[in-house]
């Protein structure tokens, strides 16, 4: 069997792919490289491509800027909101897929809430959480300003429409005959959902959870306006290195690396599940 010979078209195609990879990955490389540069080598002209790596910027970000607290807050808010979104979206999407709840009008209304920009409701949310935070129940549930509960509610509200629409298509692709067979075996509707439907919808649930987690991790607007110090997240913490005296490029790059790289690695590791979930039920007989 003869090996395939490369043609001019193949070389052009591979060169284009490499050029696009360099174009999109160079900012990430530059951010990571800057995070390990000494302060005196960051803004030098010409650019110093070789330098002695240092952890000074990371030490400053975690010790002086308290970035560890921001990571803890982000993980807490993102994980709790993701769990709430998945639980509520599964129940709602199954209802829409099997009972046609609202005859399609309610689904359209849910979609319109996703279209609404967050800046349009940030002032009402600010006023509501300020009032709730002054009550005993609000303080117990962390629902005031600069409390993680406020961000959990906001992220759940804004990610839930997307999750419902995504899960709705997954539930529609599951054959009804499987549920009818389970019902004949004596299962209740909730038992059918728990033992039959949800195990088959695991790829869809996984990809919905991944997207919801990424959206919550990267959110900035609500975290910036509803938090101060106690519940500040990493995206707001990165913006905090832009001071009146100038931009602290070293700690900023270190904080941005901590913010971006985990989600980037997370998406790469779970890439197969993302593709499997997005193509779940795409081919119908």
List the helices and strands and how they pair.
Elements lengths: L7 H28 L3 H4 L13 H9 L2 H33 L5 H11 L6 H12 L2 H5 L7 H25 L3 H9 L4 H12 L1 H17 L2 H6 L7 H6 L2 E2 L2 E2 L1 H21 L1 H8 L7
Antiparallel strand pairs: 1-2
Helix pairs in contact: 1-14, 3-14, 4-8, 4-11, 5-8, 8-11, 9-10, 11-15
Structure description:
By secondary structure, the chain is mainly alpha-helical. It has two domains: 8-12 and 15-56, no CATH class; 67-239, MetI-like fold (Orthogonal Bundle), CATH 1.10.3720.10. It has helices at 8-35, 39-42, 56-64, 67-99, 105-115, 122-133, 136-140, 148-172, 176-184, 189-200, 202-218, 221-226, 234-239, 249-269, 271-278, and strands spanning 242-243, 246-247. A two-stranded antiparallel ribbon has the order 1-2. Strand 1 (242-243) and strand 2 form a beta hairpin. Helix 4 (67-99) packs parallel to helix 8 (148-172) and helix 5 (105-115) packs across helix 8. The mean pLDDT is 86.
Q: Would you kindly provide a brief summary of this structure?
A:
The chain has 285 residues and is mainly α. The chain has 15 helices and 2 strands.
- Structural class by helix and strand composition: mainly alpha
The H/E string reads HHHHHHHHHHHHHEEHH
Side by side, the strands of the main sheet go 1-2
CATH superfamily of the largest domain, by name, is: MetI-like
| CATH fold title of the largest domain | MetI-like fold
Distance between the termini: 37 Å
Features:
single chain, 285 residues, mainly alpha, MetI-like fold, 2 domains, two-stranded antiparallel sheet, flat
